[in-house]
UniProtKB/TrEMBL annotation:
InterPro entries referenced in this protein's UniProt entry, alphabetically: AraC-type_N (IPR032687), Homeodomain-like_sf (IPR009057), HTH_AraC (IPR018060), Tscrpt_reg_AraC-type_HTH (IPR020449)
Identification of the protein by name: AraC family transcriptional regulator
Top-rank taxon: Bacteria
SUPFAM superfamilies listed in its UniProt record: Homeodomain-like
Keywords: DNA-binding, Transcription, Transcription regulation
Species classification: Bacteria, Pseudomonadati, Pseudomonadota, Gammaproteobacteria, Moraxellales
GO cellular component: cytosol
Organism for this UniProt entry: Agitococcus lubricus
GO molecular function: DNA-binding transcription factor activity; transcription cis-regulatory region binding
Keyword Heme attributed: no
Alphabetical list of PANTHER family matching this protein: HTH-TYPE TRANSCRIPTIONAL REGULATOR GADX (PTHR47894), HTH-TYPE TRANSCRIPTIONAL REGULATOR VQSM (PTHR47894:SF1)
Length: 352
């Protein structure tokens, strides 16, 4: 039997606690696939998971999730993971949430220290007059099946964490997903999930604003002070430029009449050399080209939804000289051609 050669981890930023991938490994074990099999399939060094206090990179986390999907299938994997994540799995952040006085205080702490336990997924609070709305999206491009699992895991995890803090109080929540409805929902009915809405514009959790005033029964001011101090220390240890670079570049890659900014133009705006920019992105497991493709995917769907421009015009606005190349790329992104995507939207609006 040939010996497995593991990739070098030194170039990857290991900031994710192994408590997260451990849940995937546990589910795989229950479905008949051992941890050793998963790690061998993912080409990951078992030593990364030998210590309960260990940490892995976003890239290694993605490899592990990919391997679990390949070996045991999806079948509601992300929703199952979210349901199994206790708040204590989030370390100091989890203890801070449990020690907060009210749900409003906990929500503020979650926003403030999200990156301490971030997993390649960004969290954004949306100011809505009637609801508490948290929107999530992947920080960098990843395979669609992996993205689906991670978004379901993170969003359902926030929901179950909130339910724990409410200690039995009724929670009228909705989970919205910007993806087609899967065929495995009947297999996760035992999870007591809230209302699930698929094919939405964005992936988000929505709960009534009244919950913000609910007191948390595990509140403890002394424990809160200690947990917040630890969160502050962990946040200070994060390499800020490296951690935020993907989000900064994504925000700069907005569509306009002159096209997307080039790597040279982005580097100039950030007072970096182009080489440094590319290195920062590489450390985050992505590249300028991948982020441009993600921006095109985002803007293509927006243009198809919000304008009457024909497919050729949209292709040209996104930098595709040949509309056939745009159609091919769009089908890879969504599984549909632009024409099919727009027709489905019209059917949904007509049905409503």
């Amino acid at each position: 039997m040939s010996q497995i050669t593991y990739p070098k981890e030194q170039t990857l930023y290991a900031h994710l606690p192994v408590t997260y991938p451990a849940i995937y490994l546990q589910i795989a074990e229950e479905r008949g696939v051992s941890q050793a099999q998963v790690l061998a399939h993912a080409q990951l060094n078992p030593q990364l998971f030998a210590q309960t206090t260990g940490r892995v990179s976003s890239q290694d986390y993605e490899k592990l999730v990919t391997a679990v999907i390949a070996l045991v299938g999806n079948n509601g994997l992300g929703l199952e993971v979210g349901a199994r994540q206790p708040l204590t799995a989030h370390g100091s952040l989890g203890y801070a949430l449990m020690s907060a006085a009210t749900i409003a205080d906990a929500m503020y702490i979650l926003q403030r220290f999200w990156h301490v336990r971030g997993r390649g997924v960004n969290l954004r609070y949306i100011d809505d007059p009637h609801c508490v709305v948290f929107s999530i999206y992947c920080q960098y491009p990843m395979p669609p099946e992996v993205e689906k699992v991670l978004l379901e895991a993170v969003l359902s995890g926030i929901y179950y964490g909130l339910k724990f803090l409410l200690a039995g109080e009724n929670l009228d929540a909705e989970l919205h997903f910007a993806m087609p409805e899967p065929d495995y929902l009947t297999q996760v009915s035992h999870l007591a999930l809230p209302t699930l809405c698929y094919e939405q514009a964005v992936t988000q959790l929505r709960v009534p604003k009244a919950v913000l005033h609910y007191p948390i029964k595990t509140a403890n001011p002394e424990a809160l002070t200690l947990a917040i101090a630890q969160c502050e220390r962990e946040l200070a240890l994060l390499p800020t430029m490296q951690q935020d670079m993907v989000m900064i570049v994504k925000n700069l890659l907005q569509h306009h009449t002159q096209g997307y900014l080039t790597p040279e133009q982005i580097a100039e705006r950030l007072h970096l050399s182009e080489r440094s920019l590319r290195r920062h992105l590489q450390h985050q497991g992505t590249s300028y080209q991948q982020l441009v493709e993600a921006a095109r995917q985002r803007d293509a769907q927006q243009l198809l939804r919000q304008t009457q421009a024909d497919i050729q015009q949209i292709a040209q606005r996104l930098g595709y000289n040949n509309p056939a190349n745009f159609t091919r790329a769009f089908k890879q992104w969504t599984g549909q051609t632009p024409t099919e995507f727009r027709a489905r939207l019209r059917r949904m609006l007509h049905h409503d």
